Amino acid sequence: MSPAGAKTAKYVYGVVRPARAKPKGKGIDGKPLRVVTADGIGALTSEVPDAPLEAGRDELMTHARVLERALEHGAVLPMQFGVVLPDDDAIREQLLAPHKPELEAQLQEMDGKGELNVKAIYDEPAILREVLAEDSEIASLRKTIQSQPEDATYYERIRLGELVAAALEAKRERDEHLIITQLAPAAVAMEVAGPIHERMVVNASFLVEEERVQEFEDLLEDLAAEQHPRIGFKLTGPLPPHSFVELSVEA
Amino acid sequence: MATAMQQSPYRGGSGYVARSSSSGLYDVLELILDKGLVIDVFVRVSLIGIEILTVDARIVIASVDTYLRFAEAVNRLDLMSTETQGLPELMEGITEGGSASKTKGVLQGAREAIFGDDDEDDDDEKSGSRRRSSSSGSTTRRKRSSSS
């Protein structure tokens, strides 16, 4: 397909409505973006070499940015990073045509909505102070340990850590529940991904209607003010609805 | 409706919620690697380097090493001090996945090998003392890298 004769393939970023898509900017490796259409739905693509795809920072960034820009022109259903098909026909025959009804339904459902990702993280000293204040067994074990040389307290320290870990997890579950329950009313749907490190309380995505993004942000801001300084919050989005799209396996 | 959803501008200064900066790949990495439409059976080019990118911070609390870290963190805690970590530092910690946090101790185990080749070996060594949390995220990635 390419003039040089080297074999190429098509990287697919997501599914869009061709009538609204205005592919601007560049795709992976600076290649131009094109919409491959089939019967009213389209795939946002760019050409890549027909070879294993490098998954570096640039490629991942480009994938994310192309989808974010597409969202400015209407609903977009993001593909997971790394979907490559041989050519335009394969995109039509293997992606667009067989999944047309569900893709159309999801494009309609995602209209005017975006994904807001919320991460909530404990402040370590603050949360450990809470644990000490609330749990007398932990507090007294800590005192015992501190009154003895370190070598003499190996098992006590393991026990202390175990108690702290359990107390933290119980606390985390309560706080996670509290936070997502307060945010849920402003969202259409929610996906709780779970913590990815020890201090993380909440790692969740919310599907929010455009006109309610401000409301969502206000709820989150209230929550953050209330929980300050024990929990810090971070908000990302509105993003394309990565967590809220899916394709049935058969078809 | 034909709506244009745009990134809200960074809300600097005011408010307690940190906003992702436009270059914050870390914040969307999990989403673009784990979520979204996939057509499984069809051509998915093998992804070079995807293991290096794995966000493998799902450590578990149930190990002796972790318990000792928690114990150390609690023992070092200065109960008199009311000083808490400032929000900017805290958010830096989030962005870096915790490993860059100024507070040492509990967090030292939380490592994320994002874009760091050097971290790969280290991670493998440590994986013995880890157990994945019940979250399903990294399972998907493992599957992918082994099937490529």
Task: Provide the low-confidence segments of chain B as ranges.
Answer: 1-13, 51-61, 82-148
Report the radius of gyration of chain B as a whole number of Å. Answer: 19 Å
Q: What general outline of chain A do the C-alpha atoms trace?
A: elongated
Strand fraction of chain B equals under 5%
Number of strands of chain B: 2
Order of helices and strands of chain A: EEEEHEEHHEHHHEEHE
Largest interface: A-B, 98 and 86 residues
- Please, what is the oligomeric state? heterodimer
Question: Which structural category do the helix and sheet elements of chain A fall into?
Answer: alpha+beta
Q: What is the tally of beta strands of chain A? A: 10
Cα end-to-end separation of chain B: 39 Å
Helix content of chain A: 40-55%
Q: Characterize the main sheet of chain A.
A: 5 strands, antiparallel
Shape call of chain B: flat
- Written as H for each helix and E for each strand, in order along the chain, the element string of chain B is EHEHHHHH
- Kindly provide the radius of gyration of chain A, computed on alpha-carbon positions and rounded to a whole number of angstroms: 24 Å
Average per-residue pLDDT of chain B, rounded, comes to 52
Q: What is the number of helical segments of chain A per DSSP (H or I, 4+ residues)? A: 7
The number of helices of chain B is 6
Please sum up the structure shown.
Chain A has 251 residues and is an alpha+beta fold.
Q: How would you describe the overall organization of this protein?
A:
The complex is a heterodimer of chains A (251) and B (148). With 251 residues, chain A is of the alpha+beta class. Chain A folds into two domains: 8-111; 114-244. Chain A has seven helices and ten strands. In chain A, the strands form two sheets. In chain A, strands 1, 2, 3, 5 and 6 form a five-stranded antiparallel sheet that branches. By secondary structure, chain B is mostly helical. Chain B has a domain at 39-76 and 87-147. The longest helix of chain B is centred in the middle third of the chain and has 13 residues, at 64-76. The chains are: A alpha+beta (251), B mainly alpha (148). Chains A and B meet through strand 1, strand 4, helix 1, strand 6 and helix 2 of A and strand 1, helix 1, strand 2, helix 3 and helix 4 of B. Strand 4 (53-54) of chain A pairs parallel with strand 2 (47-48) of chain B.
